[in-house]
Design a protein that fits this description.
The chain has 532 residues and is of the alpha+beta class. It has a domain of 214 residues: Dipeptide-binding Protein, domain 3. Helix content is 27%, strand content 21%. The protein has 15 helices and 21 strands. Strands 2, 9, 10, 11, 12, 13, 14, 15, 16, 17 and 19 form an 11-stranded mixed beta sheet that branches. Strands 5-6-8-7 form a 4-stranded antiparallel beta sheet, with helices on one face. Helix 8 runs antiparallel to helix 10. The protein is globular. The protein starts with a strand and ends with a strand. About 6% of the residues have low confidence.
């Protein structure tokens, strides 16, 4: 399961436009070459220190379940396809691909001459081994993402065919992320269980991991043999070294940027955004993102929110605009009612089922259930004042409808475990980092028995609509099916309470050039360079 704690999302609210690139064609440039802001020619050399908001959990894409891991992964691993800063899917290790008329077979033509950091060859056999490892390993976190895959066949050294059990329209979007990341079989097998923290020389990416010190720093050096080139023809990457430093406290993180100990970060708290925008020594960038924020009930039989009317009572009682403007986000972001982000192709701008708090409506829903006043435990991640502030604001809003939320703090990983086991007593305040296709924001959270369905939600009509949306090749039909499902799991029989969308941020010192935020909030630093 991939989630972020509520404190992570304090800074990231909004949405972005997704435009799928054509599914065949030549290699797209890796980007970069000159600074968009100064027009200066890119320079080689130097070290960039990038701060992330927490330590990573796993360097193995098969096991990784948290957003933060991918900050490192996109530097060391190449995926079969990727997104550009606009959100378009573009060729990467797969130079081009074709799809069979029935939509059940994808044939990928691979980039030739690519080697893993350990010197082993990237080819069709490597693709088959990686995809089969992700989809067939019992405890793989990629099982759900690759569940539609029936078989992977090596056609020749530079061609691989993936056959699906049924047409699966969002398939390429899965290969952008960890399901499409390519690793050296030799390194993975040699390291065994230690690979999770010692993924040295395992990728084909622009940077090579050389040092991993838990809770302190991760060092990468330039891959001199990387295949990528900038738009102007420059060989990439430009930097000699990358250092990633986990810094959990937002104030400390910003201080490190201001003092030059860190040159970049993608985690800025809402209260600091006006300040960094006004600081002429810094460059702040922000674009719509794909993450969403929600309260997660437990609808398991015998628990407080077994009856969906009580979930709806919470949903209609909260004031989303007040949460956005007066909460820790302080106006950074967008109010939301569901998981389909504003610029996903299936977004419906008219879908605002609870535009204002409906106190009397919430009271009536609770009364109709007939079990007395609604009182529940609200679990939030410990150790961050912003998370607690958000929970207290929601708590105060619910009081107006005579709903009592008892706030309890717990370690983030402990909350995740309770959710996965469907044992949380009431609701949790944990959110989702988002995916480029709406299927990744919707399916696993609302389909019966799926891995991310932490609310234990089950609705046969929703299941049917979501299954049909995966096979519908007409975008208009797909949108119709997704919106019908959303109406049910948000309003008619709610699976959880959504209240906002995320933005993607990037803060750098002025000397950092050649990088921009991506809609998934993750840095790709192959084009980064330092101006003297």
């Amino acid at each position: 399961m991939e989630m972020r704690s509520a404190r992570y999302f304090v800074a990231f609210l909004g949405s972005f436009a997704i435009l799928l690139a054509a599914c065949s064609g030549g290699q797209q440039p890796a980007g970069g070459g000159a600074s968009a802001s100064t027009g200066a020619k890119a320079a080689y050399g130097g070290t960039l220190t990038f701060s992330i908001n927490s330590d990573i959990t796993d360097m193995d894409p098969l096991r990784s379940g948290l957003f933060v891991d991918r900050n490192l992964m996109y530097q060391m691993y190449d995926s079969l396809v990727r997104v550009n800063p606009k959100g378009d899917i573009i060729p990467w290790l797969a130079e081009k691909w074709t799809t069979s008329p029935d939509g059940k077979s994808y044939t990928f033509t691979l980039k030739q001459g690519v080697k893993f950091h350990d010197g082993s060859v990237f080819d069709a056999e490597a693709v088959k081994w990686n995809l089969d490892r992700y989809r067939l390993t019992k405890d793989s976190r990629r099982l759900a993402e690759l569940a539609p895959v029936d078989s992977v066949t090596v056609v020749d050294p530079s061609t691989v065919r993936v056959d699906l059990k049924t047409p699966f329209v969002p398939f390429l979007s899965q290969l952008v992320d960890r399901s499409g990341m390519m690793l050296s079989r030799k390194v993975v097998e040699a390291q065994g269980d230690d690979f999770t923290r010692k993924a040295f020389k395992a990728g084909t990416g622009p940077y090579i991991l050389t040092e991993a010190v838990k809770d302190d720093h991760y060092t990468f050096v330039k891959n001199p043999d990387w295949w990528g080139k900038a738009a102007n023809g420059d060989k990439l990457p430009y930097l000699d070294k990358l250092i990633f430093k986990p810094i959990t406290d937002g104030d400390v993180r910003l201080t490190n940027v201001r003092t030059g100990q860190v040159q970049a970060t993608n985690a800025i708290t809402g209260k600091d955004v006006p300040t960094v925008k006004a600081d002429t020594s810094l460059v702040y960038q922000e674009i719509p993102g794909i993450s969403w924020l929600s309260l997660v009930p437990n609808r398991t039989k015998g628990f407080t929110f077994e009856d969906g009317r009580l979930v709806k009572a919470v949903s209609v009682a909260i004031d989303r605009t007040e949460i956005l403007e007066k909460g820790p986000r302080q106006g950074i972001g967008v109010v939301g009612w569901g998981p389909i982000a504003p610029s996903h192709f299936a977004f419906d701008a008219g879908f605002k089922p609870f535009p204002k708090a409906d106190i009397e409506g919430a009271k009536k829903l609770v009364a109709d259930v007939g079990k007395g006043p609604l009182k529940f435990e609200l679990l939030v991640s410990s150790g961050d004042a912003a998370t607690l502030q958000l929970a207290q604001l929601i708590q105060d809003q619910l009081k107006r409808a005579d709903i009592t939320a008892d706030i309890k703090t717990l370690l983030f990983n402990e909350i995740v475990k309770l959710q996965q086991d469907h044992k949380h007593l009431g609701m949790t305040l944990i959110d989702w980092s988002g995916r480029i296709d709406p299927d990744g924001n919707v399916y696993d959270f609302n389909y019966t028995g799926r891995p991310n369905n932490d609310s234990a939600y089950s609705n046969k009509e929703v299941d049917k609509l979501l299954d049909d949306s995966r096979t519908a090749t007409d975008p208009a039909k797909r949108k119709e099916l997704l919106l019908k499902a959303q109406q049910i799991f948000v309003v008619d029989d709610p699976s959880r309470v959504w209240y906002g969308y995320g933005v993607a941020q990037l803060l750098t010192v002025k000397a950092v050039q050649g990088i921009e935020p991506y809609p998934d909030q993750l840095p790709r630093l192959q084009t980064a360079w330092l101006q003297n």
